């Protein structure tokens, strides 16, 4: 699919691809993830300050570029091609939209400008491996089960002496070990009258303890968050949180879908180039009909996933289904890349495994694909939950 992009959108894509080709090759990625932050801080400042990536979809009144989700999705496609390790997803696709949807004017004015400029990074903390459920991508989030339960479940918040104090633990937070600002979903009202509300917590606040996890995909860092009577700032008044999370989930799914498509397309391009060079039985491997058929199947799959992702930019309600298409295309293409690179493809040192790990990790974080499709079908009225009325 070749979308009708504006000159400005073409320029975003061209500029970012040129920069990442110079600064974010496979060796650069491997070196960046070994740093304490998990990414190249100098490169992040360049894409944040010079290109304005975190603030692409932020209104100008709050210090952003004033574009929209389409420009952010295009940028994500290019960062996906290079597997750029960065706080972009957690900050621009999850935290910033939640602040825009639920924050007060004073909170937006205080936090959105530095987030848009890349001076601050942010992360969304929900208990357990429940991010996709909290965002409404793999199930209905309205019952709040994703936020834990009981006296010790998830994070608890209590109001005393004019301040909110948070106590608890979140085991798996995307970019949680390094984010400057944390958006934490916590229970209020005690055991008998519990409600889920959202709080802002400074990453360097007293009582915050964070540990970086060793993950399958080192370019997608995660951390454990422990809160011990940490002061928090209430973001919402207790209403609209679930709907806001669903809205953010759909737009984030579109961003993730284009990112997955970019990664799959690049893995496919590198594989096609390799089978043209690698010889077996005196001829290039790519000349064998079976190999051609396999690569042709992957090309069709990637293009279909790109079409679904671009459609979701226009219609965010299709974000969940587009994400399913993108994750499946990346998984299949990355697996094909490993196999067709032969002996070197099976070594951890080869770049093909970077894409394979990204595919596996993303499906664990935001999938599985079957659940994404089931939820999309349910939202479209094709499936019913037990006891629910038939769609009209």
What does this structure look like?
The chain has 392 residues and is α+β, with helices and mostly antiparallel strands. Strands 1, 2, 3, 4, 5, 6 and 7 form a 7-stranded mixed beta sheet that branches. Strands 8-9 form a two-stranded antiparallel sheet. Helix 5 (88-102) runs antiparallel to helix 8. The longest helix is centred in the middle third of the chain and has 37 residues, at 241-277. The chain has 13 helices and 9 strands. The protein has 3 domains: 7-88 and 105-119, Acyl-CoA dehydrogenase/oxidase, N-terminal domain (Butyryl-Coa Dehydrogenase, subunit A, domain 1); 123-239, Butyryl-CoA Dehydrogenase, subunit A, domain 2 (Beta Barrel); 243-379, Up-down Bundle (Butyryl-CoA Dehydrogenase, subunit A, domain 3).
Produce a short descriptive summary.
This protein is of the alpha+beta class. It contains 13 helices and 9 strands.
Euclidean distance between termini CA atoms? 34 Å
Task: Profile the largest sheet.
Answer: 7 strands, mixed
Q: Any idea what the radius of gyration is?
A: 21 Å
Counting helices, strands and paired strands, the structural category is: alpha+beta
CATH topology of the largest domain: Butyryl-CoA Dehydrogenase, subunit A, domain 3
Number of strands: 9
Under CATH at level 1, the class of the largest domain stands as Mainly Alpha
Quaternary status: single chain
Helix segment count? Answer: 13
Features:
392 residues, alpha+beta, Butyryl-Coa Dehydrogenase, subunit A, domain 1, Butyryl-CoA Dehydrogenase, subunit A, domain 2, seven-stranded mixed sheet, two-stranded antiparallel sheet, globular, AcylCoA_DH/ox_N_sf, Acyl-CoA dehydrogenase family protein, oxidoreductase, FAD
